[in-house]
Specification:
By secondary structure, the protein is of the alpha/beta class. It contains ten helices and nine strands. The protein has a seven-stranded mixed β-sheet with strand order 5-4-3-6-7-9-8, with helices on both faces. A two-stranded antiparallel ribbon has the order 1-2. Strand 1 and strand 2 form a beta hairpin. The chain is globular, with a radius of gyration of 18 Å.
Length: 258
């Protein structure tokens, strides 16, 4: 136990040294390393490794300075490289489970409306909204962001219908989520009901499914049009190790047709 604590403290101390080859796009600071999540990929459930699940970079997870995580960094880079961040000026945005650092960047884009929401908000600045029953009129938003949220939602099909309903025609939904190409169909089973079983089956104790290669068909059933991009298409010259991101993660962009 003492050895583990020493190694943990040593890792943080190293990460916080000035300079370093890594760079966090969220805070702009450099670091010698990004901090792992729960001990890193070596502690990932065996099934997740076997399925080559694409999700968080468990070894290069948190920035030691701003604590922003890899999914947050990747999302910002996707938004910038696609040009979507610039187009948010004057637009209405609904952001589920809003990440602290990413929220600052989106707010700085000067949207006309920026609603940050969560099922269990921990800040008065975040509204309580259930993704399966969004408290908004049809066609209220130009953008809806849910970065690794749908894998937590009890009925994702109902949530996707709500996403479609509250988007304006031509509006965009950004719906990042872990998935496994090896799975022919999304895996969910109500019998997998306790934390230990969900951790082994889905990769995290509070996940209720693992999306498979049917993810686009499943999302498109709500009426959303897939406009997904590979990392290599939007960020071809970006070194994943430098920025602490998972280059296997696509940009899951969808649009409500005009």
């Amino acid at each position: 136990m003492i050895t583990k604590l020493f190694r943990f403290a040593q890792g943080i101390a190293l990460a916080l040294l000035p300079g370093g080859p890594r760079r966090c796009v969220l805070c702009g600071r450099r670091a010698w390393k990004f901090l792992p999540y729960c001990g890193g990929s070596k502690n990932q459930p065996p099934l997740m490794r076997e399925l080559h699940v694409v999700g968080s970079d468990l070894d290069r997870f948190a920035c030691p300075h701003c604590r922003g995580h890899d999914r947050e960094r990747h999302m910002l880079m996707f938004l910038q490289s696609s040009g979507l961040l610039e187009t948010m000026r004057g637009k209405a945005i609904l952001h589920f489970a809003p990440e602290r650092n990413l929220s600052h960047w989106i707010a700085a884009a000067e949207p006309s409306t920026y609603v940050r929401c969560d099922l269990e908000p921990t800040s008065p600045a975040v509204r309580r909204i259930d993704m399966m029953a969004i408290d908004a009129e049809p066609g209220s938003f130009d953008f809806l962001i849910a970065n690794h949220v749908l894998e937590h939602v009890a009925d994702d099909r109902r949530a996707l219908q709500e996403v479609y309903r509250v988007l304006k025609p031509g509006g965009h939904a950004i719906l990042q989520t872990p998935f496994a190409r090896k799975l022919h169909a999304t895996w969910e089973d109500q019998g997998i009901a306790d934390d230990k079983a969900r951790l082994q089956a889905y990769g995290q104790a509070d996940h209720v499914r693992l999306y498979g290669s049917d993810i686009f068909k499943r999302f498109a059933a709500s009426g959303l049009e897939p406009l997904a991009y590979l990392h290599s298409e939007l960020l071809p010259d970006t070194d994943a190790d430098t920025h602490g991101i998972n280059q296997d993660e696509p940009f899951f962009l969808f649009r409500k047709k005009l």
